[in-house]
Design a protein that fits this description.
The protein is mainly β. It folds into 2 domains: 39 residues, no CATH class; 130 residues, Ribonuclease Inhibitor (Leucine-rich repeat, LRR (right-handed beta-alpha superhelix), Alpha-Beta Horseshoe), CATH 3.80.10. The protein is 4% helix and 34% strand. It has 1 helix and 14 strands, in the order βββββββββββββαβ. The strands form 3 sheets. Strands 4, 5, 6, 8, 9 and 11 form a 6-stranded mixed sheet that branches. It is rod-shaped. This is Leucine-rich repeat domain, L domain-like. Pfam families: LRR_5 (PF13306).
Length: 191
């Protein structure tokens, strides 16, 4: 196709006709995304940045396998706040994965297992740094607790967490912290 122009004639500027755009890079919690537009007339392209996704705020709740967790540190940490009352054996995981985010489970909330008459055995994950008082209050059939974490301190845990649990409750702990944990859970049987 050819055009013949008269000398001195000015052509009007042609505007781009952008398409609806295509997401060429999805935004994540760590990186921004990209939206690419292309001109229908000349194939020019324009790239617009898409903001990173915002982490769910502190206090946001998630329920996984009957256990309720609350975000304590956006994008990083959660607290186990409530468990199912019908479960006999519970494992408090080191971490959970929700909506593309891996959260460390760092704390067991006060009354998280409160009055669970069915509970007999609990395994506590490696990232736990706090077990609140009364976390296992009145769990009368709780006989075995295995703590895998080596990060508990006297300020962050004590025997009140297991108030009114089974009289023969045994707490199994890693060897390297047995002496420290005996002080933390003074009066309870530590193995």
């Amino acid at each position: 196709m050819s055009f013949h122009l008269e000398e001195g004639k000015v052509l009007p500027k042609l505007e781009h006709q952008w398409n609806d755009g295509t997401v060429t890079k999805r935004a994540t919690y760590e990186t921004a995304g990209e939206l690419t537009y292309r001109c229908r007339k000349c194939a020019a392209k324009r790239i617009i940045s898409i903001e990173k996704l915002a982490y769910p705020k502190a206090g946001t709740s998630y329920t996984i396998s009957g256990n309720e967790y609350k975000v304590s540190k956006p994008g990083a940490e959660v607290i186990l706040v409530k468990t199912s009352k019908t479960t006999k054996n519970v494992t408090v995981p080191a971490q959970i994965y929700v909506q593309g985010i891996t959260y460390k489970v760092t704390s067991i909330g006060a009354k998280a297992f409160n009055n669970n008459k069915n509970l007999t055995k609990v395994t506590i994950g490696t990232n736990i740094i706090k077990i609140n008082s009364n976390a296992f209050f009145n769990c009368k059939n709780l006989k075995t607790v295995t703590i895998k974490s080596v990060r508990l301190t006297k300020k962050a845990a004590n025997k009140k967490a297991f108030k009114n649990a089974h009289k023969k409750l045994v707490i199994r702990v890693p060897k390297k912290v047995k002496k420290i944990y005996k002080k933390i859970f003074k009066g309870l049987k530590i193995k």
